[in-house]
Design goal:
The chain has 22 helices and no strands. It is an all-alpha fold.
Length: 571
């Protein structure tokens, strides 16, 4: 059925043009806009960006390889329950716009870790800064690795050459043009990503027999499991786990992550930042959902001939390869269309990598390098030069680390463990400081360290245990020359030879079987509780900051004023 596809001249031309145009935008931002006179011009695009590119960048920045390749694979195997996350993300984004984002403008920060030092102290600032930098390095590497691996498995693209090319292009235009280049490049890359999605949907729905036939197949295959209300922590995509994770993701990624917050800080004032984030919530929902539901469409296409179970004929080994495999086999007869879709997948990877490079460079320069040179009164020109060098260095690290992940089973699982796990802890650190006047540097640092140890133990032990949640029914009953079943077999009469290898129970500890979807939420609540406990032990009546501190959220200040009026009325 599948074979390694040799890309045509038109495909290579389109992919090359994508890389050249991305680089060209970076060069334009550097040499034709006449900016980058001060560090703010480079790191925050001069704080005068229009809403349009910021909204596009917010949408595509975290629409990475995991969204384009792994989320469809998860839906293909486990059904649409994961899409509950997408429905709840806008709720978290609204909370971020009202509670969290205004505080950064009040404190006039460029790096959100600056806020932590203002609110708590230096220890927690550097703890969170290190966590963020490690998070971004892994995220960039996984995103780069995932896109290239999946495509090199089904095309004649060289894995090594693709990794180096994509990584180099991202590092080049990011280091040259700064945030301004990243934002405008994201607009161009968003167009390519949307084009790729539309092509897959149009062709896939047609190949699945139309919308009505597609609905029948996914319903029969038990993929419409939207409300999995059973309170089971081992269920991969239970309703409560996904709903909680969605709200957490909306707050954490769009409120307490430098990558997304930096886009909002490039706007001129609080009002524009709040409205931009709220305007982005619906497009973010549609983009993430569109990526997820590709899995539904492809399940309809491969309803009775799963390409992974039929790997002897297809050559595919991982479900992350299903999307690119469909692209190359379906569009190979249309010159350039395969290249356009590959460019869309590469764009998903590049938008994430460039954004992470820019944010990691900003945090490194502001948190570490400027304080080192503070006594020497480092010039604005040198700050920009150092930021560019740091961005290029991170690009090199990203390229090198991408080769480490070649034996992972699921990009999505890997992403959740290394990315979502620390984000819950970081989110709790910011929210506790914005919503209360309690807890100082030592209290919050204690909570963060203890929670990190506990969550790392659970997550890494889970990966090491080898436990995998069972997938929904799959079949190869209609595959040509299938030796396992006859053509008349039903999807529910699958012999054991057509299913993935059964999970051998080894009396796994229940926390090792817990779905990774809970990681960020548990990290959040555990950090919050441990901080409150530490503050209680050290003296709950003590306030770490004054009532009029700009480190408090407007929501907290409003509540405090209302409470003060209420107390006065009682008296």
């Amino acid at each position: 059925m599948f074979k390694k596809y040799s890309l045509g001249v038109a495909d290579y031309v389109i992919i090359s043009l994508t890389l050249l145009l991305s680089t060209g935008i970076g060069l334009c931002a550097r040499y034709f806009k006449g900016q980058q006179k001060i560090a703010t011009d480079y790191l925050l695009a001069g704080k005068n960006m229009p809403k349009f590119p910021v909204i596009f960048s917010i949408i595509v920045t975290l629409t990475s390889t995991s969204s384009f390749l792994s989320s469809p694979a998860e839906v293909y195997k486990y059904g649409i329950a994961i899409s509950i996350v997408n429905f709840m993300i806008p709720v978290g984004m609204f909370i971020s716009s009202s509670v969290i984002i205004p505080v950064y403008f009040q404190c006039e920060v460029s790096s959100i870790t600056e806020y932590l030092e203002m609110r708590y102290g230096r220890i927690i600032r550097y703890l969170v800064s290190v966590m963020f930098l490690l998070q971004m390095v892994f995220y960039m590497s996984i995103s780069l690795y995932g896109a290239v691996l999946a495509l090199s498995a089904v095309t004649d693209l060289s894995f090594e050459m693709s990794v180096v090319s994509l990584g180099t292009v991202c590092a080049l235009y990011c280091s040259l043009g700064g945030l301004d280049a990243v934002l405008w490049t994201d607009v161009f890359q968003a167009i390519l990503m949307i084009t790729c999605l539309l092509a897959i949907y149009i062709a896939g729905i047609s190949d699945a027999g139309g919308i009505s036939d597609l609905f029948r197949k996914v319903s029969t295959g038990k993929r419409l499991n939207f409300f999995e209300l059973v309170p089971d922590i081992t269920q991969r995509y239970g309703f409560w786990a996904c709903a909680t994770h969605g709200i957490m993701a909306g707050m954490a990624f769009f409120g307490t992550n430098q990558v997304e917050v930096q886009r909002l800080l490039s706007l001129s004032n609080i009002k524009r930042a709040k409205s931009t984030l709220r305007m982005s919530s619906l497009p973010v929902f549609f983009m993430y959902s569109a990526c997820c539901y590709i899995g539904v469409v492809l399940y309809g296409v491969y309803y009775n001939c799963d390409p992974i179970l039929n790997k002897e004929r297809t050559g595919l080994r991982k479900y992350d390869q299903v999307v690119p495999a469909y692209i190359v086999t379906r569009f190979s007869s249309y010159p350039g269309l395969t290249g356009l879709c590959i460019a869309g997948i590469f764009s998903a990877s590049m938008s994430t990598i460039s954004s992470c490079l820019n944010s990691a460079s900003t945090v490194t320069v502001i948190d570490y390098l400027i304080p080192i040179f503070r006594k020497g009164n480092i010039s604005e020109f040198r700050i920009i030069l150092v930021a560019k060098i740091v961005s290029a260095i991170y690009g090199g690290v990203c390229i090198g680390l991408s080769f480490v992940f070649q034996h992972t089973d699921s990009i999505h699982h890997l992403t959740q463990v290394f990315i979502a796990l620390p984000q819950g802890i970081i989110c709790a650190t910011f929210l506790f400081g914005m919503l209360t006047r309690k807890a100082g540097d030592k209290c919050i640092s204690f909570a963060v360290v203890v929670t990190c140890v506990i969550m790392a133990w659970i997550a890494l032990s889970s990966l090491h245990s080898g436990y995998v949640q069972p997938v929904l029914p799959l079949s190869i009953s209609m595959c040509p020359s299938s030796q396992n079943q006859t053509m008349s077999d039903s999807i529910f009469n699958i012999s054991s030879s057509t299913l993935p290898s059964p999970i051998t129970e080894k009396n796994h500890f229940v926390l090792y079987k817990m779905t990774f979807v809970w990681y960020s939420s548990i990290g959040f609540f555990l950090t919050f509780l441990l901080t409150a406990f530490a503050a209680l032990i050290t003296g709950w009546k003590k306030n770490a900051i004054p009532a009029n501190s700009k480190c408090l959220s407007p929501v907290t200040q409003f509540w405090m004023k209302k409470n003060q009026v209420f107390v006065q009325q009682i008296k």
